[in-house]
Amino acid sequence: MSDVERYVKEHHHLMDIPSEADVLENGINLAEMNALLLQKVEELTLYVIELEKKIEINRRQ
Fold first, then answer.
1. pLDDT tens digits for range 27-57
2. Most C-beta atoms within 10 A of its C-beta, which of 2, 14, 40, 58?
3. What is the pTM of this model?
4. How far apart are CA 41 and CA 6, in angstroms?
């Protein structure tokens, strides 16, 4: 199990992203949320690149 999966199972939201309860209680700063979402898009893009490399390596074997 990955660290991300473990965190989501325990906290029910992504790391560095406020929970639904937190948002409902405190609201959100849109500029801050946009920056956080951009960070997550970048993390996902890097993860996909890593997976594609692993797939290519496995294809060659």
1. 999 999 999 999 999 999 999 999 999 999 9
2. 14
3. 0.78
4. 19
CB 30 within 8 A of CB 4: no
Closest CA to 15 of 31, 29, 2: 2
Contact 19, 12 (CB under 8 A): yes
pLDDT value at residue 1: 84
Cα–Cα distance, 54 to 61 (Å, whole number): 11
Find out whether 15 and 7 touch, Cβ atoms under 8 Å.
yes
Contacts of 16 (CB under 8 A, 6+ apart): 36, 39, 40
